[in-house]
Amino acid sequence: MSEQLTFSQWKSIKPALFIGLALALLQIGSGLAAHEHSKSLLWKAKYQTSQNLSRALVVAVTEQIVLKDYASIESHILQTMSNIEVASVMLTDTTGKVLSALKREPGQAPHLTFDVYSIDTPKTDQTELQSRDSAFITTWAKVSLGSDKGWVRLQTYNELNSADLASLREQTLLLSGLSVVSGLLILGVFLWRAYFTVVKREHMFEVKFDEATQRLMQSEKLASLGELAAGVAHEINNPVGYVSSNLTTLQKYLTVYEKMLDAPAADNADMTALKMKLNYAFVRDDLRSLLRETQEGLGRVKVIIQDLKDYARTEASTNFVAADIHLGLKSTLNIARNTLKNRAEIQLNLGDLPLVECAPSQIDQVFLNLIVNAAQAMPEGKMGVINISTHRDDSCVCIQVQDNGPGIEPGNLKKIFDPFFTTKALSVGTGLGLSVSQKIIQQHRGTLDVDSQVGVSTTFKITLPIQQLSA
Q: Which residues contact 277 (CB under 8 A, 6 or more apart)?
Protein backbone atom coordinates (compact mmCIF):
# COMPACT_ATOMS: atom_id res chain seq x y z
CA MET A 1 0.00 0.00 0.00
CA SER A 2 1.36 3.37 -1.03
CA GLU A 3 0.02 5.42 1.88
CA GLN A 4 1.74 5.31 5.24
CA LEU A 5 -0.52 4.12 8.03
CA THR A 6 -1.46 6.76 10.54
CA PHE A 7 -1.79 5.95 14.22
CA SER A 8 -5.61 5.91 14.00
CA GLN A 9 -5.52 3.64 10.95
CA TRP A 10 -3.12 1.25 12.67
CA LYS A 11 -5.36 1.32 15.75
CA SER A 12 -8.36 0.36 13.59
CA ILE A 13 -6.52 -2.37 11.68
CA LYS A 14 -4.76 -3.87 14.71
CA PRO A 15 -7.69 -6.01 15.98
CA ALA A 16 -8.23 -7.51 12.52
CA LEU A 17 -4.51 -8.23 12.20
CA PHE A 18 -4.42 -9.87 15.61
CA ILE A 19 -7.46 -12.01 14.78
CA GLY A 20 -5.96 -13.03 11.44
CA LEU A 21 -2.62 -13.76 13.05
CA ALA A 22 -4.31 -15.73 15.83
CA LEU A 23 -6.22 -17.83 13.31
CA ALA A 24 -3.07 -18.39 11.26
CA LEU A 25 -1.17 -19.46 14.38
CA LEU A 26 -4.12 -21.67 15.32
CA GLN A 27 -3.90 -23.39 11.96
CA ILE A 28 -0.16 -23.90 12.32
CA GLY A 29 -0.65 -25.03 15.92
CA SER A 30 -3.25 -27.56 14.79
CA GLY A 31 -0.67 -29.06 12.45
CA LEU A 32 1.85 -29.35 15.27
CA ALA A 33 -0.84 -30.76 17.56
CA ALA A 34 -1.69 -33.37 14.94
CA HIS A 35 1.99 -34.27 14.78
CA GLU A 36 2.21 -34.67 18.55
CA HIS A 37 -1.03 -36.65 18.61
CA SER A 38 0.24 -39.01 15.92
CA LYS A 39 3.48 -39.38 17.83
CA SER A 40 1.60 -40.17 21.04
CA LEU A 41 -0.39 -42.81 19.17
CA LEU A 42 2.89 -44.45 18.13
CA TRP A 43 4.08 -44.44 21.74
CA LYS A 44 0.73 -45.84 22.82
CA ALA A 45 1.12 -48.60 20.26
CA LYS A 46 4.58 -49.37 21.63
CA TYR A 47 3.18 -49.59 25.18
CA GLN A 48 0.39 -51.82 23.89
CA THR A 49 2.87 -54.08 22.06
CA SER A 50 4.98 -54.47 25.20
CA GLN A 51 1.87 -55.21 27.25
CA ASN A 52 0.59 -57.79 24.76
CA LEU A 53 3.98 -59.57 24.62
CA SER A 54 4.11 -59.67 28.43
CA ARG A 55 0.61 -61.10 28.73
CA ALA A 56 1.24 -63.72 26.08
CA LEU A 57 4.48 -64.77 27.80
CA VAL A 58 2.74 -65.00 31.21
CA VAL A 59 0.10 -67.29 29.73
CA ALA A 60 2.77 -69.43 28.08
CA VAL A 61 5.10 -69.90 31.10
CA THR A 62 2.61 -70.15 34.01
CA GLU A 63 2.29 -73.94 33.92
CA GLN A 64 6.03 -74.37 33.16
CA ILE A 65 6.92 -72.47 36.35
CA VAL A 66 4.77 -74.83 38.38
CA LEU A 67 6.35 -77.81 36.63
CA LYS A 68 9.80 -76.14 36.75
CA ASP A 69 10.25 -76.86 33.06
CA TYR A 70 12.97 -74.25 32.49
CA ALA A 71 13.78 -75.48 28.96
CA SER A 72 10.23 -74.72 27.83
CA ILE A 73 10.35 -71.41 29.69
CA GLU A 74 13.51 -70.33 27.83
CA SER A 75 11.94 -71.50 24.56
CA HIS A 76 8.90 -69.26 25.13
CA ILE A 77 11.13 -66.36 26.16
CA LEU A 78 13.25 -66.81 23.05
CA GLN A 79 10.08 -66.88 20.95
CA THR A 80 9.02 -63.59 22.56
CA MET A 81 12.41 -62.05 21.78
CA SER A 82 11.95 -62.82 18.11
CA ASN A 83 10.33 -59.39 18.11
CA ILE A 84 13.32 -57.11 17.42
CA GLU A 85 11.88 -54.35 19.60
CA VAL A 86 12.32 -56.51 22.73
CA ALA A 87 15.58 -55.72 24.57
CA SER A 88 15.34 -58.19 27.46
CA VAL A 89 13.04 -60.62 29.26
CA MET A 90 13.42 -61.84 32.84
CA LEU A 91 11.35 -64.38 34.78
CA THR A 92 11.54 -64.26 38.57
CA ASP A 93 9.86 -65.90 41.51
CA THR A 94 7.92 -63.90 44.09
CA THR A 95 11.12 -63.03 45.99
CA GLY A 96 12.84 -61.57 42.93
CA LYS A 97 15.16 -64.52 42.27
CA VAL A 98 15.88 -64.71 38.52
CA LEU A 99 14.70 -68.00 37.04
CA SER A 100 15.55 -67.21 33.45
CA ALA A 101 16.85 -64.15 31.60
CA LEU A 102 17.58 -63.29 27.99
CA LYS A 103 18.72 -59.97 26.55
CA ARG A 104 20.01 -58.57 23.29
CA GLU A 105 22.16 -55.65 22.26
CA PRO A 106 20.78 -53.38 19.52
CA GLY A 107 21.07 -55.20 16.21
CA GLN A 108 22.37 -58.41 17.84
CA ALA A 109 20.83 -61.86 18.48
CA PRO A 110 19.39 -62.58 21.99
CA HIS A 111 21.49 -64.47 24.52
CA LEU A 112 21.10 -65.89 28.01
CA THR A 113 22.17 -63.80 30.97
CA PHE A 114 23.84 -65.51 33.94
CA ASP A 115 25.27 -62.58 35.89
CA VAL A 116 21.98 -61.39 37.35
CA TYR A 117 20.74 -63.53 40.27
CA SER A 118 18.10 -61.34 41.84
CA ILE A 119 16.21 -58.13 41.06
CA ASP A 120 13.75 -55.96 42.94
CA THR A 121 10.17 -56.76 41.98
CA PRO A 122 7.16 -54.41 42.36
CA LYS A 123 5.57 -54.31 45.81
CA THR A 124 1.96 -54.01 44.69
CA ASP A 125 -1.24 -55.95 44.26
CA GLN A 126 -1.56 -54.81 40.66
CA THR A 127 -1.07 -57.48 38.00
CA GLU A 128 0.59 -55.12 35.47
CA LEU A 129 2.89 -52.09 35.68
CA GLN A 130 4.54 -50.05 32.92
CA SER A 131 7.22 -47.35 33.06
CA ARG A 132 9.56 -45.58 30.68
CA ASP A 133 13.08 -44.21 31.01
CA SER A 134 15.65 -42.89 28.56
CA ALA A 135 16.46 -46.38 27.25
CA PHE A 136 13.50 -48.74 27.70
CA ILE A 137 9.81 -49.21 28.18
CA THR A 138 9.57 -51.67 31.08
CA THR A 139 6.48 -53.85 31.58
CA TRP A 140 5.93 -55.93 34.70
CA ALA A 141 3.33 -58.74 34.49
CA LYS A 142 2.45 -60.94 37.47
CA VAL A 143 2.47 -64.76 37.02
CA SER A 144 -0.44 -66.28 38.95
CA LEU A 145 -2.02 -69.74 39.11
CA GLY A 146 -4.24 -69.81 42.16
CA SER A 147 -1.47 -67.96 43.96
CA ASP A 148 1.38 -65.65 42.94
CA LYS A 149 4.22 -67.54 41.28
CA GLY A 150 6.46 -64.67 40.20
CA TRP A 151 6.94 -61.81 37.72
CA VAL A 152 7.76 -61.37 34.04
CA ARG A 153 9.79 -58.22 33.30
CA LEU A 154 9.84 -57.29 29.60
CA GLN A 155 11.80 -54.31 28.23
CA THR A 156 11.41 -52.81 24.75
CA TYR A 157 13.63 -50.14 23.22
CA ASN A 158 12.53 -46.58 23.96
CA GLU A 159 12.61 -45.34 20.37
CA LEU A 160 10.16 -45.11 17.51
CA ASN A 161 10.53 -47.22 14.44
CA SER A 162 12.25 -45.26 11.62
CA ALA A 163 9.63 -46.33 9.10
CA ASP A 164 6.86 -45.16 11.40
CA LEU A 165 8.70 -41.88 11.96
CA ALA A 166 9.17 -41.36 8.22
CA SER A 167 5.47 -41.88 7.65
CA LEU A 168 4.68 -39.57 10.56
CA ARG A 169 7.00 -36.88 9.19
CA GLU A 170 5.28 -37.06 5.81
CA GLN A 171 1.88 -36.71 7.44
CA THR A 172 3.09 -33.87 9.64
CA LEU A 173 4.71 -32.08 6.69
CA LEU A 174 1.48 -32.32 4.73
CA LEU A 175 -0.65 -31.16 7.64
CA SER A 176 1.75 -28.36 8.55
CA GLY A 177 1.96 -27.26 4.91
CA LEU A 178 -1.81 -27.16 4.60
CA SER A 179 -2.07 -25.34 7.95
CA VAL A 180 0.51 -22.70 6.93
CA VAL A 181 -1.15 -22.15 3.54
CA SER A 182 -4.60 -21.87 5.08
CA GLY A 183 -3.20 -19.60 7.81
CA LEU A 184 -1.60 -17.32 5.21
CA LEU A 185 -4.83 -17.26 3.21
CA ILE A 186 -6.77 -16.28 6.32
CA LEU A 187 -4.23 -13.58 7.17
CA GLY A 188 -4.30 -12.33 3.57
CA VAL A 189 -8.10 -12.10 3.61
CA PHE A 190 -8.01 -10.13 6.86
CA LEU A 191 -5.34 -7.80 5.50
CA TRP A 192 -7.34 -7.25 2.33
CA ARG A 193 -10.51 -6.59 4.26
CA ALA A 194 -8.71 -4.38 6.75
CA TYR A 195 -7.15 -2.32 3.96
CA PHE A 196 -10.35 -1.73 2.04
CA THR A 197 -12.65 -1.34 5.03
CA VAL A 198 -10.34 0.77 7.19
CA VAL A 199 -7.60 2.47 5.17
CA LYS A 200 -9.56 3.16 2.01
CA ARG A 201 -12.69 4.11 3.92
CA GLU A 202 -10.73 6.37 6.26
CA HIS A 203 -8.86 7.86 3.29
CA MET A 204 -12.18 8.71 1.62
CA PHE A 205 -13.44 10.09 4.93
CA GLU A 206 -10.28 12.20 5.31
CA VAL A 207 -10.66 13.53 1.75
CA LYS A 208 -14.26 14.51 2.45
CA PHE A 209 -13.27 15.92 5.84
CA ASP A 210 -10.49 17.99 4.22
CA GLU A 211 -12.96 19.27 1.65
CA ALA A 212 -15.39 20.19 4.43
CA THR A 213 -12.57 21.84 6.37
CA GLN A 214 -11.57 23.90 3.33
CA ARG A 215 -15.18 24.97 2.83
CA LEU A 216 -15.41 25.88 6.51
CA MET A 217 -12.22 27.93 6.30
CA GLN A 218 -13.43 29.70 3.18
CA SER A 219 -16.83 30.29 4.75
CA GLU A 220 -15.21 31.80 7.84
CA LYS A 221 -12.97 33.91 5.62
CA LEU A 222 -15.96 35.27 3.72
CA ALA A 223 -17.73 35.89 7.04
CA SER A 224 -14.73 37.96 8.11
CA LEU A 225 -14.91 39.90 4.87
CA GLY A 226 -18.61 40.46 5.49
CA GLU A 227 -17.84 41.96 8.89
CA LEU A 228 -15.18 44.19 7.31
CA ALA A 229 -17.28 45.09 4.26
CA ALA A 230 -18.46 48.45 5.59
CA GLY A 231 -14.96 49.47 6.62
CA VAL A 232 -13.45 48.31 3.32
CA ALA A 233 -16.16 50.18 1.42
CA HIS A 234 -15.33 53.30 3.41
CA GLU A 235 -11.61 52.85 2.72
CA ILE A 236 -12.34 52.60 -1.00
CA ASN A 237 -14.91 55.44 -0.92
CA ASN A 238 -12.40 58.01 0.35
CA PRO A 239 -9.95 57.81 -2.59
CA VAL A 240 -12.82 57.30 -5.04
CA GLY A 241 -14.43 60.47 -3.67
CA TYR A 242 -11.49 62.72 -4.23
CA VAL A 243 -10.74 61.09 -7.61
CA SER A 244 -14.31 61.99 -8.62
CA SER A 245 -13.87 65.53 -7.30
CA ASN A 246 -10.57 65.90 -9.13
CA LEU A 247 -12.15 64.74 -12.39
CA THR A 248 -14.84 67.45 -12.02
CA THR A 249 -12.13 70.06 -11.47
CA LEU A 250 -10.15 68.63 -14.39
CA GLN A 251 -13.19 69.14 -16.60
CA LYS A 252 -13.25 72.84 -15.63
CA TYR A 253 -9.53 73.14 -16.31
CA LEU A 254 -10.01 71.64 -19.75
CA THR A 255 -12.48 74.45 -20.47
CA VAL A 256 -9.72 76.99 -19.68
CA TYR A 257 -7.31 75.20 -22.03
CA GLU A 258 -9.94 75.09 -24.77
CA LYS A 259 -10.49 78.85 -24.49
CA MET A 260 -6.77 79.47 -24.65
CA LEU A 261 -6.43 77.28 -27.71
CA ASP A 262 -9.49 78.72 -29.44
CA ALA A 263 -8.47 82.41 -28.80
CA PRO A 264 -7.77 84.41 -32.03
CA ALA A 265 -4.21 85.47 -32.70
CA ALA A 266 -3.34 88.43 -30.57
CA ASP A 267 -0.32 90.33 -29.42
CA ASN A 268 1.46 89.41 -26.22
CA ALA A 269 -0.36 92.04 -24.18
CA ASP A 270 -3.76 90.67 -25.17
CA MET A 271 -2.64 87.08 -24.50
CA THR A 272 -1.31 88.04 -21.10
CA ALA A 273 -4.55 89.72 -20.24
CA LEU A 274 -6.52 86.59 -21.31
CA LYS A 275 -4.31 84.34 -19.16
CA MET A 276 -4.83 86.54 -16.15
CA LYS A 277 -8.56 86.58 -16.75
CA LEU A 278 -8.75 82.75 -16.94
CA ASN A 279 -6.27 82.28 -14.03
CA TYR A 280 -4.14 80.18 -16.38
CA ALA A 281 -1.00 80.05 -14.15
CA PHE A 282 -2.94 78.60 -11.21
CA VAL A 283 -4.73 76.08 -13.43
CA ARG A 284 -1.42 74.90 -14.93
CA ASP A 285 0.22 74.38 -11.49
CA ASP A 286 -2.84 72.84 -9.85
CA LEU A 287 -3.35 70.47 -12.77
CA ARG A 288 -0.13 68.61 -12.01
CA SER A 289 -1.05 68.28 -8.32
CA LEU A 290 -4.56 67.17 -9.27
CA LEU A 291 -3.27 64.41 -11.57
CA ARG A 292 -0.79 63.25 -8.93
CA GLU A 293 -3.53 63.03 -6.28
CA THR A 294 -5.79 61.19 -8.73
CA GLN A 295 -3.08 58.63 -9.44
CA GLU A 296 -2.47 58.17 -5.72
CA GLY A 297 -6.20 57.63 -5.09
CA LEU A 298 -6.49 55.09 -7.89
CA GLY A 299 -3.36 53.37 -6.59
CA ARG A 300 -4.91 53.21 -3.12
CA VAL A 301 -8.07 51.60 -4.53
CA LYS A 302 -5.98 49.17 -6.53
CA VAL A 303 -4.00 48.12 -3.45
CA ILE A 304 -7.14 47.56 -1.37
CA ILE A 305 -8.79 45.53 -4.13
CA GLN A 306 -5.63 43.48 -4.65
CA ASP A 307 -5.33 42.80 -0.91
CA LEU A 308 -8.97 41.71 -0.83
CA LYS A 309 -8.42 39.48 -3.83
CA ASP A 310 -5.34 37.88 -2.27
CA TYR A 311 -7.17 37.34 0.99
CA ALA A 312 -10.38 35.91 -0.48
CA ARG A 313 -8.90 33.69 -3.21
CA THR A 314 -9.49 29.94 -3.02
CA GLU A 315 -7.24 28.78 -5.85
CA ALA A 316 -3.98 27.20 -4.67
CA SER A 317 -4.84 28.21 -1.11
CA THR A 318 -3.34 25.00 0.26
CA ASN A 319 -0.17 25.08 -1.86
CA PHE A 320 2.86 25.82 0.24
CA VAL A 321 5.24 28.42 -1.21
CA ALA A 322 8.08 30.49 0.19
CA ALA A 323 6.35 33.69 1.31
CA ASP A 324 7.21 36.97 3.02
CA ILE A 325 5.34 36.95 6.35
CA HIS A 326 5.76 40.71 6.79
CA LEU A 327 4.26 41.42 3.36
CA GLY A 328 1.17 39.38 4.24
CA LEU A 329 0.93 41.07 7.64
CA LYS A 330 1.02 44.57 6.13
CA SER A 331 -1.54 43.56 3.49
CA THR A 332 -3.85 42.29 6.24
CA LEU A 333 -3.47 45.54 8.21
CA ASN A 334 -4.39 47.42 5.04
CA ILE A 335 -7.68 45.48 4.81
CA ALA A 336 -8.47 45.99 8.50
CA ARG A 337 -7.46 49.68 8.55
CA ASN A 338 -10.97 51.06 8.96
CA THR A 339 -11.90 48.47 11.63
CA LEU A 340 -8.85 49.51 13.63
CA LYS A 341 -9.55 53.22 13.22
CA ASN A 342 -10.57 54.89 16.51
CA ARG A 343 -10.29 51.53 18.33
CA ALA A 344 -6.62 50.56 18.43
CA GLU A 345 -3.23 51.86 17.44
CA ILE A 346 -0.93 49.39 15.71
CA GLN A 347 2.69 49.13 16.87
CA LEU A 348 4.97 47.02 14.69
CA ASN A 349 8.19 45.50 16.01
CA LEU A 350 9.29 43.41 13.07
CA GLY A 351 12.43 41.34 13.21
CA ASP A 352 14.52 39.92 10.37
CA LEU A 353 12.55 36.94 9.03
CA PRO A 354 13.46 34.59 6.19
CA LEU A 355 10.91 33.46 3.63
CA VAL A 356 8.56 30.94 5.26
CA GLU A 357 7.14 27.91 3.48
CA CYS A 358 3.38 28.28 3.95
CA ALA A 359 0.00 28.88 2.31
CA PRO A 360 0.07 32.73 2.41
CA SER A 361 -3.68 33.23 2.01
CA GLN A 362 -4.38 30.98 5.03
CA ILE A 363 -1.75 32.66 7.21
CA ASP A 364 -3.21 36.06 6.30
CA GLN A 365 -6.60 34.75 7.42
CA VAL A 366 -5.11 33.91 10.84
CA PHE A 367 -3.55 37.38 11.08
CA LEU A 368 -6.86 39.04 10.25
CA ASN A 369 -8.75 36.97 12.84
CA LEU A 370 -6.30 37.81 15.62
CA ILE A 371 -6.02 41.51 14.76
CA VAL A 372 -9.77 42.07 14.37
CA ASN A 373 -10.47 40.13 17.58
CA ALA A 374 -7.95 42.30 19.43
CA ALA A 375 -9.56 45.50 18.09
CA GLN A 376 -13.10 44.33 18.90
CA ALA A 377 -12.02 43.42 22.44
CA MET A 378 -11.26 47.08 23.22
CA PRO A 379 -13.89 48.79 25.39
CA GLU A 380 -16.02 51.42 23.67
CA GLY A 381 -14.47 54.86 23.90
CA LYS A 382 -10.99 53.57 24.76
CA MET A 383 -8.14 53.76 22.25
CA GLY A 384 -6.20 50.54 22.70
CA VAL A 385 -2.78 49.41 21.53
CA ILE A 386 -2.08 46.28 19.50
CA ASN A 387 1.57 45.35 19.47
CA ILE A 388 2.63 42.99 16.66
CA SER A 389 6.14 41.59 16.89
CA THR A 390 8.06 38.98 14.91
CA HIS A 391 11.35 37.19 15.42
CA ARG A 392 13.17 34.07 14.35
CA ASP A 393 13.74 31.16 16.76
CA ASP A 394 16.11 28.53 15.31
CA SER A 395 14.15 26.70 12.61
CA CYS A 396 10.90 28.57 13.32
CA VAL A 397 9.47 32.06 13.13
CA CYS A 398 7.30 33.56 15.88
CA ILE A 399 4.55 36.14 15.45
CA GLN A 400 2.96 37.69 18.54
CA VAL A 401 -0.23 39.76 18.59
CA GLN A 402 -0.64 41.46 21.97
CA ASP A 403 -3.40 43.85 23.00
CA ASN A 404 -3.96 45.86 26.18
CA GLY A 405 -7.65 45.01 26.31
CA PRO A 406 -9.62 43.59 29.24
CA GLY A 407 -8.18 40.07 28.89
CA ILE A 408 -10.01 36.74 28.83
CA GLU A 409 -11.66 35.12 31.82
CA PRO A 410 -9.96 31.83 32.90
CA GLY A 411 -13.16 29.87 32.31
CA ASN A 412 -13.40 31.14 28.73
CA LEU A 413 -9.68 30.76 28.07
CA LYS A 414 -10.06 26.95 27.99
CA LYS A 415 -12.82 27.15 25.37
CA ILE A 416 -11.74 29.89 22.98
CA PHE A 417 -10.50 27.40 20.36
CA ASP A 418 -13.74 25.39 20.46
CA PRO A 419 -15.84 25.72 17.28
CA PHE A 420 -18.74 28.18 17.59
CA PHE A 421 -17.68 29.39 21.03
CA THR A 422 -17.80 33.17 21.21
CA THR A 423 -18.28 35.89 23.79
CA LYS A 424 -19.31 38.40 21.11
CA ALA A 425 -22.84 39.31 20.13
CA LEU A 426 -24.40 37.11 17.41
CA SER A 427 -24.21 39.96 14.92
CA VAL A 428 -20.48 40.43 15.54
CA GLY A 429 -18.90 36.97 15.57
CA THR A 430 -19.55 33.38 14.42
CA GLY A 431 -17.27 31.64 16.93
CA LEU A 432 -15.25 29.99 14.16
CA GLY A 433 -12.37 32.44 13.79
CA LEU A 434 -10.01 31.05 16.44
CA SER A 435 -11.02 27.43 15.77
CA VAL A 436 -10.23 27.80 12.07
CA SER A 437 -7.04 29.72 12.87
CA GLN A 438 -5.79 26.92 15.11
CA LYS A 439 -6.64 24.35 12.42
CA ILE A 440 -4.66 26.33 9.84
CA ILE A 441 -1.60 26.62 12.09
CA GLN A 442 -1.75 22.91 12.95
CA GLN A 443 -1.86 22.07 9.22
CA HIS A 444 1.33 24.11 8.93
CA ARG A 445 2.84 21.97 11.74
CA GLY A 446 2.99 25.02 13.96
CA THR A 447 1.39 26.11 17.22
CA LEU A 448 -1.08 28.80 18.25
CA ASP A 449 -0.91 29.61 21.96
CA VAL A 450 -2.70 32.18 24.08
CA ASP A 451 -1.79 33.87 27.34
CA SER A 452 -4.13 36.31 29.02
CA GLN A 453 -4.26 38.29 32.24
CA VAL A 454 -7.64 39.76 33.11
CA GLY A 455 -7.51 43.56 33.06
CA VAL A 456 -3.94 43.62 31.66
CA SER A 457 -3.45 42.08 28.23
CA THR A 458 -3.97 39.12 25.91
CA THR A 459 -1.19 37.66 23.77
CA PHE A 460 -1.55 35.20 20.91
CA LYS A 461 1.68 33.57 19.78
CA ILE A 462 2.04 31.85 16.41
CA THR A 463 5.01 29.56 15.80
CA LEU A 464 5.63 28.37 12.24
CA PRO A 465 8.40 26.15 10.88
CA ILE A 466 10.47 27.91 8.23
CA GLN A 467 10.42 24.80 6.05
CA GLN A 468 7.72 22.14 5.88
CA LEU A 469 9.11 18.63 6.28
CA SER A 470 8.06 16.28 3.51
CA ALA A 471 5.41 13.74 4.60
A: none
Contact 435, 444 (CB under 8 A): no
Between 360-376 and 325-335, two packed helices, what is the crossing angle to 10 degrees?
50
Q: What's the pLDDT band for 353 if we cut at 50, 70, 90?
A: very high
The answer to whether residue 469 scores a pLDDT higher than 60 is yes
* Amino acid code (one letter) for 202: E
User: pLDDT tens digit string along 127-167?
Assistant: 889 888 888 889 999 988 878 888 999 998 887 655 555 66
pLDDT (average), residues 183-202: 64
Type of residue found at 154: L
The DSSP letter of residue 199 is: I
Q: Compute the residue count for the chain.
A: 471
The secondary structure element, H or E, covering residue 466 is: none
- Going by C-alpha positions, the residue among 114, 130, 109 that lies closest to residue 70 is 114
**Residue 336 one-letter amino acid:** A
Residue-level pLDDT at 230: 55
> How does pLDDT run across 226-259, given as a tens digit for each residue?
555 555 665 666 667 667 777 777 777 677 666 6
Please answer whether residues 70 and 91 qualify as being in contact, where contact means their C-beta atoms are separated by less than 8 angstroms: no
Rounded-to-integer distance, Cα 269 and Cα 4, Å: 92
DSSP assignments along 129-192, one per residue: EEEE-SSEEEEEEEEESSSEEEEEEEEEESS--HHHHHHHHHHHHHHHHHHHHHHHHHHHHHHH
Quote the CA–CA distance of 121 and 193 in Å, as a whole number. Answer: 66
User: Taking Cα atoms as reference points, which of 412, 468, 407, 406 lies closest to residue 443?
Assistant: 468
Three-state secondary structure call for residue 388? strand
Q: What is d(CA 214, CA 439) in angstroms, rounded to the nearest whole number?
A: 10
How would residue 398 be classed by pLDDT, with cut points 50, 70 and 90?
very high
Kindly list the structural domains of the chain, giving each domain's residue range(s) and its CATH number in brackets, ordered by start.
Answer: 7-160 (3.30.450.20), 319-471 (3.30.565.10)
List, in sequence order, every residue forming a beta bridge with 138; answer none if it has no partner: 131, 155
pTM (whole model) above 0.70:
no
Q: What are phi and psi of 271, to 5 degrees?
A: -65, -40
Residue 366 pLDDT greater than 80, yes or no: yes
> What's the number of CA atoms in the CB half-sphere (13 Å) around residue 85?
20
The side-by-side arrangement of strands in the sheet containing 396-403 is 344-349, 384-393, 396-403, 457-465, 447-453
